[in-house]
Amino acid sequence: MPRRNDISSILLIGSGPIVIGQACEFDYSGTQACRVLREEGYRVILANSNPATIMTDPDFADATYVEPLDVEILTKIIEKERPDALLPTMGGQTALNLAMELVERGVLERYDVELIGADARAIATAEDRNLFKQAMVGIGLQVPSSGVAAPPPGLEKASKAEKVQAAMVEARTVVAEIGLPVVIRPAYILGGKGTGIAATPEEFEAVASHGLDASPITEILIEKSIAGWKEYELEVMRDHADNCVIICSIENVDPMGVHTGDSITVAPAQTLSDVEYQKMRDAAFACIRRVGVETGGSNVQFALNPENGDMVVIEMNPRVSRSSALASKATGFPIAKIAARLAVGYTLDEIPNDITRKTPASFEPTIDYVVTKVPRWAFEKFPGQEAVLGTQMQSVGEAMAIGRTFPESLQKALRSLEQGRLGLNGDPGEVAFDHLTDDELVAAAAIGTPDRPFQLERAIWRGIDLDRIHAETKVDPWFLDQMSLITEERLALEEIGFAGMDRAAWRRAKRLGFGDAQLAHLWGVAEAEVRAARLAAGVRVTFKTVDTCGAEFEAETPYHYSTYEDDDEVRPGSRPKVLILGSGPNRIGQGIEFDYCCVHASFALRDAGFETIMLNCNPETVSTDYDTSDRLYFEPLTYEDVMNVVEGEQAGGGDLLGVIVSLGGQTPLKLSGRLPADLVLGTSPASIDLAEDREGWNQLCTELGILQPPGGTATTYEAAKAIADDIGYPVLVRPSYVLGGRAMEIVYDDAQLERAMAQLAGFGSLGREGGLSAERPVLVDRFLEDATEVDVDAIRDRTGEVVIGGVMEHVEEAGVHSGDSACAIPPYSLSPETVAVIEGHTRRIAEALDVRGLINVQFAVRDGEVFVIEANPRASRTVPFVAKATGVPLVKVATRVMVGATLRELRIEGLLRDPDTEGHVAVKEAVLPFNRFPDADRVLGPEMRSTGEVMGLDRSFGLAFAKSQMAAGDRLPESGRVFFSLADRDKPAGVRAARRYVELGFTLAATDGTADALEAAGVPVEQRVAKLGDAGSEGRTAVDLIHAGEIQMVVNSPRGRGPRADGGYIRAAAGVAGIACLTTAAAALAAADGMADWASHPLQVMALQEFHRR
C-alpha cells in the first residue's frame, strides 16, 4: 500500500549525546529517517540535545529542537508542534525509553499522537525482561534458565534505594533456585549498562544491586550463565503485510561473556551450518512476529552451544540498533531508510533497492566478501580501570573493514584502529607478550581484553596447539585456523625475504591483508621501498563494489573496498573531483564532530558541482553512508590505503583537484606531510607543521608580539627538568601531534615530571602508539593557574580576509581540557576590549600561517592579559556547536574556501551570512562516561575524557547552562543541601558560589577546612562533615550523607595528583547516587546562576529555525 496520508507531521526523538553503548550510529539512522520522511512530504520535527551531529543541522528537519531529552521538555515540544505521530525507533534506547514514559504519563493520548514504527506493547514485550522471556517460551523458543527480580507492588513512590533494597530480596530467591554463575541483565538499558556476571554470592550482591540501580524500572533478569557459547545476531525487517527479511547475519569472534559491542564481529556468520542458519532465521522471524514489531527493523541475538548445537534467544531490540548501522554498511542495505518508509505505510516489496535499482527491499541481501568490525577502547584515559571486557559495553568506537577473506578483512580492520598496530602482529607492538610463558599467554588470551586477538596470534606463532587454545579461550577453531594462515604466511615471508618476492608472493601476502608498513617491519626496510617493489612487480590494488546481491545485478551506487584481484569496478568520472579523508573510528578527543565536518564538506562540494569522494573506515557514521558522497571507499586511513585511492582516482576519468585533510581531526592531518604537497587542499602542510613545531611557533608569536606561556620541547626527563627549572612549576606536559589532550598532565614537582615523561616515552599506552622522538617531542609549558580559557574558530580565504566564526568562553578555568569544559557563545564575562584583543590575535595568527580554511586558536586570559596557548589550522571539535549557535554553516564555507572561493563570493552567493547571536546564549557541556568506569576518579583535568556533548540554548547564560546540565544528565536540584569540599586555591571562588546557594535557599555541608573559609566570609554552614579516615570521629562523612540521600549536589575540587583521597570517594559516591557533582568552583558558580534563572523563568522551547529566523 502507498504512504499514509492520514498523518502529516512526525516527531523524531534523537539519541542525545554520544555515550558508550549509544554512539553516532544513531546519528546515521536518524539522519536517514529525517531525509526519507521529508522526501515523502511529511513535516519532520526533531528533538535531540547533541549539537555535534549531522541530524541536528537545521536542513534535515522542518523544526529542529536542540533541547534536553527530558519528558517535561518533550511534552512542551508536543504541546507546541502538535505532531500526528511519534517515531521512537531511530534514537536508540534513549528515544525508546522516553516514548514509553510519554505513553505512561498519558502525553501522547492527551495530544492525540500515534506511536509508529513500534507500539507500546511491542516495546514493552521486548524490553521488559520477564515479558520477553514469557513471549519466547510461549512460541517454543528456548531461553536460558532465568528469573526476574523487581520491587513488589505498592512501592511506586518509594526512593530508588528503597526499590533496589526490596527487589534484592526477590533476587536472592531467584539465584537460589537457578544457581551460580548467573548473568544479570537490567530492563530498558543500552550498551549492557548495569549487566554483569556473578560467580560468587558476594559478586551477585554487588552486580544485582548495580543492575537494579541501572534499570529505569528497577527490574533485572537473572539468567543462568552461558559464558563460552558462540554468539550471533540477525538483523530482521518486517512490514505490516507480514513480509520478513534477514538483512545480515553477524557472528562474534569472542564467546559469550563479552558484550557484542566489545567483541570483534564478522559478517556474514562464518561457522554456522546451513541447517543451523535456517533454524536461527526461522526463530528470528517468529521472535519479531511475537513481539509485535510490525513496521521496521529489529536486532535478535542468539547463543549456540558448540558442544551440542542447542540454541537460545538472548534478547531482541525492537528498534534500529548499533548493529543495524554495521549491517547497513556491510551489505549496502539502508536499514534505517527502509524502516522509516515501512513506518509510514509502505511494504518491503514496494520499496526499491537504492543500490541495484532493480530489486525490491524484500530481496534479501547476499554478499560475496567478508566484513570485520573491531572495537576501539579508551582504558588509557581512565587510570585505575582494569582493561577487562565483560557483559557491559566499554568501547568508545569501532572500525570496519571489507576483504575477500577473513584474514584480509581482519588485518585491514586492525590497522584501521590507529593505535600503532599494523595488522595481526608483525609490528613493533607484538613484543609486549614476549615476557609471558606459554601457559601465561594462553591464560591471558582466555580473558576478554583489547589484546586478545594479538595474544591468540602469538600463541599460534609459538606453536601452541590450536585445540588447546580453543579449549581454554572458547574462541571457535575456525577463527583460530584463519589466524594461523596469517602466521604461516608471515613465517614464509620472513624466509623468502624482501629480495626474493615475486608477483605471486606479493599477491598472496596482500590477499591475506598484509600492509606495506607491516611487511617493511618484518623485513627491516622502509615502507617506501616495499611499495615501490610491489608496484614494480605489477601488484596493484583493485577496487570491488558493495552491491547487496553478490554481483547478480549491476550496482548503480559506487561504494567500494580494496582487494587484490584482476578486475577493477570503479567507474570513471568526468567532473573535477575532491577526495575527503574521514576521521576513522570514534575515540575520546576525535568523534562525531569531525564526521559532521566531512559530511558538510561533501554536501558543499556537491552543491558547487564537484564530484565528491569519501574515504573512511567508521561504520557508525553518516560519512560512510553510500549516498553522502558521489563515491565511497571503505578503507583504513593509512598512507598506503590513501595513496591507493589517490592513484586509482588519478588514473580514472576526471581531474582530481586534491585531498582535504583538515576536517577529519588529527588522523588525516598526520598524513598531510606524506601526501604530495600539491594535492593537499587548503592550508599547506608546511603551515600545519609550523603550528605544531614548537620552536617555529614560539618565534612566530614573538614576531607577532603575542604573549604565550614560557616553555620548550623535550624528549628526555633531563631536558624536561631543565625547562621546568627555568620556567618554574606548575608545568603543563603534553605530547605533540595528538588530539583530546592525549597523555596531557599538569605536574607540580620533579617526581611527577619524571613519572609523566616515563609514561610518554614508552611505558604507557602512548609509547605503543609511537613513543617520543625528535619529530614527536613533549611540550613543556608554564601552566597558568586561575586563567579563563577561550576558544576561537575562524576562516581565512586566499585574499587574506578572516571571518570570526565564534568566540567561546570556557566555564571551567584553564587546566580542564577544552573538550571537557562547558563553554558559552557569546562570552558571558569577558569584556568587549578583551574579546577584541582575542579576535585581533586570531586574525594575525591566521595571516602568519597563511591559513586557507578553518583555524582554531586557544587563549588563556589572566588579570586582563591574553596569552595564546596553541593554534590548529584545521577544523576543531567546536565547529558544529558554533554553527548551531550562530546559524552560519562554517564547514561549508571553509570547504568552498579550500577549493578557491573567496568569502566575498560566498556572501554574494548567500552561503555566508552574519552570525546570529542576539537574544540568546548557547552553552556546550561535555558528557562523561564515568558510569561505565566506576573505578576511575571523576575529576576533570588536561586530558580529555568526555565521549560526547550537549547544548543548552536559551535567553540567558543561566537558563542555557541549566539546560545543558539537564541534557548532560546532571539535572540541577531545586532545593536541599549542597556539600562543599574545596582545594585551597578554589576557596575564594567557592565562597562566592556558596553564598549564591544560600541566597537560593539551599543549606550547606562542608569539610572543616572549607567550612572555616566559608564561615570566615560570612557564609553559614549547617553541618560540618568528618573526614573519611577519621575512624574515631563521631561525625558522619560526606559519603554517609550521600548514601542517606541527604545531599542533593556535590562541589568537590581535587587537591592535585596522588593516591586516592577523600575527594575520589566522595565523587564516586555522588556518581552512584546520581546527583550532580561539580569539580571546579567556576562550574559551581555557573550552576548557581542557572538555578536562579530556572526558578524565575517559565520553561520555553524553541527550534533552531526560529532562533536563526530561517
Number of helical runs? 38
Q: What percentage of residues falls in helices of 4 or more residues?
A: 25-40%
Which shape, going by the Cα principal axes?
A: globular
User: Which stretches of 5+ consecutive residues score pLDDT under 50?
Assistant: 763-774
Alpha-carbon distance between the termini? 35 Å
- Largest sheet: spatial strand order: 14-13-10-11-12-15-16
Average pLDDT, to the nearest integer? 90
Q: How many DSSP E strands?
A: 38
Main pleated sheet? 7 strands, antiparallel
Radius of gyration: 28 Å
The percent range for strand residues is: 15-25%
Structural class: alpha/beta
Give a quick precis of the structure.
Helix content is 37%, strand content 19%.
Topology (SSEs and partners):
Blueprint: E1 9-13, H1 25-39, E2 43-47, E3 63-65, H2 71-81, E4 85-87, H3 92-104, H4 107-110, E5 114-115, H5 120-127, H6 129-138, E6 146-149, H7 160-178, E7 182-186, E8 196-198, H8 201-214, E9 220-224, E10 230-238, E11 244-252, E12 265-267, H9 274-291, E13 296-304, E14 311-317, H10 322-331, H11 335-343, E15 370-376, E16 397-403, H12 406-416, H13 438-445, H14 452-461, H15 466-473, H16 477-496, H17 503-511, H18 516-523, H19 527-536, E17 542-545, E18 559-563, E19 577-581, H20 592-607, E20 611-616, E21 631-634, H21 639-651, E22 656-660, H22 666-671, H23 685-692, H24 694-704, E23 711-714, H25 717-727, E24 731-735, E25 745-747, H26 750-763, H27 765-768, E26 778-782, E27 788-796, E28 802-813, E29 823-825, H28 832-848, E30 853-862, E31 865-872, H29 879-886, H30 890-898, H31 903-909, E32 921-927, E33 948-954, H32 957-967, E34 977-981, H33 987-999, E35 1003-1007, H34 1008-1016, E36 1023-1025, H35 1038-1043, E37 1049-1052, H36 1062-1073, E38 1076-1078, H37 1081-1096, H38 1104-1107
Parallel strand pairs: 1-2, 1-4, 2-3, 4-5, 18-21, 19-20, 19-22, 20-21, 34-35, 34-37, 35-36, 37-38
Antiparallel strand pairs: 6-9, 7-8, 7-9, 10-11, 10-13, 11-12, 12-15, 13-14, 15-16, 17-18, 23-26, 24-25, 24-26, 27-28, 27-30, 28-29, 29-32, 30-31, 32-33
